[in-house]
User: Which sequence fits this backbone?
């Protein structure tokens, strides 16, 4: 870990990362901010920023945050908090954090009660933008949001947002043209809300009608319910990896030091947690140990490289041992395991002689057979720091390693993924980890 960690202004770094990520989201058309919010440094560390995202590009969003946060030595967390809601949290100093919330659709109410629930998808929102109605659609979605959540209109933030949308409508009307009439209708609706001339029920009905008049289509109630139930079922059945928390990162990212610091804090607070070495899942099997020994002697390879070459055999020895560990850990708060399957299912990481990085046969299929963990810790650092610790790794190997874990966590929809930057000291990393995955928090209540 960095000895200069106390000299780093993590609040400033998180603020810079926030600015870069929020700009890139809209510039790269990955997501659009649903409701405007002040972006000064003090406001950013309170409340949250809501985005409508393209659900098929969420992996790109995580890659964006990863790249920016590694560059600025910022830790961040990716969580799925509800059936559709994803959160990305940038950590500053202490308890300071910046929260992004991402939605694949905007929830609306087409009737007078919850049975009229429906939504506007990102795809249909994009079509409205292509027709030149981006700001008008966002304004109407905010009006519907006020009704859907039964918001207090006297709230300063809601008043500020209404005024902000009114300014945008003024700008469209001043430009004139055929589309200005739509903006003018939206502006009048906003004025009716601010002057308290219309009730929330009335403005919601008028907003839905305006969306329909301009061919901005909503997904119906039936489609909404089917999508919601499917997502709920996925949340219920996933994550049968129980209490195992894999702690992953390229060789040299600080896994050993990190787990030692975590276990020291576990001991200090008397938590029901333990640690486990992934390699013991297969190396303690006498059959695999015999195969590995004979292979590495014949090929003159170190143990890690031999394990990499023997990945198809290693997998089938490690899998039943991993399932057994899951069953043994059911009463634990967490079992922190260094490394995970993916690292040993790819060849070429530890070969520095120009060998290409390749997947073992059936890689994608085998990934689906791994019991999914509910939580994952990814230790991050820049290439310079990792290479200074483990010179045998190439920059391409480091990049590929992180890319595979990001792809795995997004595709498997792991509900809590913590990307910890190792510029923090060991105790600080341990406290951040145990607090973020809920182990230390539950004890302190």
Assistant:
């Amino acid at each position: 870990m960095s000895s200069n960690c106390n000299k780093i202004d993590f609040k400033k770094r998180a603020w810079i990362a926030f600015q870069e990520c929020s700009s890139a989201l809209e510039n790269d058309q990955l997501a659009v901010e649903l409701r405007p919010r002040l972006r000064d440094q003090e406001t950013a560390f309170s409340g949250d920023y809501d985005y409508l995202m393209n659900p098929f590009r969420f992996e790109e969003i995580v890659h964006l945050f990863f790249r920016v946060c590694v560059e600025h030595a910022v830790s961040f967390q990716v969580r799925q908090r509800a059936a559709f809601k994803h959160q990305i949290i940038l950590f500053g100093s202490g308890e300071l954090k910046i929260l992004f919330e991402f939605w694949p659709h905007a929830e609306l109410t087409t009737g007078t009660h919850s049975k009229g629930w429906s939504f506007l998808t990102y795809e249909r929102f994009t079509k409205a933008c292509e027709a030149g109605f981006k700001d008008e659609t966002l304004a109407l979605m905010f009006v519907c949001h006020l009704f859907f959540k039964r918001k207090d209109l006297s709230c300063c933030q809601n008043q500020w947002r209404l005024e902000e949308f009114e300014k945008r409508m003024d700008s469209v009307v001043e430009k004139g043209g055929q589309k200005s009439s739509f903006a003018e209708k939206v502006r009048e609706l906003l004025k009716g809300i601010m002057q308290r001339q219309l009730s929330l029920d009335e403005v919601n009905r008028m907003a839905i009608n305006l969306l329909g008049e301009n061919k901005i289509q909503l997904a119906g109630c039936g489609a909404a319910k089917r999508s919601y139930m499917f997502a709920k079922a996925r949340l219920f059945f996933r994550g049968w990896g129980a209490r195992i928390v894999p702690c992953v990162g390229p060789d040299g990212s600080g896994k050993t030091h990190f787990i030692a610091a975590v276990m020291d804090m576990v001991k200090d607070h008397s938590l029901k947690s333990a640690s486990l070495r992934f390699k013991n899942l297969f190396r303690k099997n006498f059959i695999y140990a015999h195969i590995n020994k004979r292979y590495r002697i014949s090929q003159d390879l170190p143990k890690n490289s031999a394990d990499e070459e023997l990945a198809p055999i290693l997998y089938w020895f490690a899998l039943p041992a991993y399932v057994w560990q899951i069953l043994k850990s059911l009463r634990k708060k967490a079992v922190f395991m260094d490394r995970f399957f993916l690292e040993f299912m790819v060849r070429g990481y530890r070969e520095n002689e120009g060998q290409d990085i390749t997947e073992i046969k059936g890689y994608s299929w085998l990934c689906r057979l791994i019991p999914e963990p509910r939580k994952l810790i990814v230790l991050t650092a820049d290439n310079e720091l990792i290479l200074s610790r483990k010179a045998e790794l190439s920059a391409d190997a480091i990049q590929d390693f992180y890319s595979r874990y990001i792809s795995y966590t997004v595709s498997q929809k792991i509900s809590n993924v913590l990307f910890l930057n190792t510029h923090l000291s060991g105790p600080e990393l341990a406290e951040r980890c145990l607090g973020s995955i809920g182990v230390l928090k539950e004890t302190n209540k």
Summary: The chain has 19 helices and 14 strands.
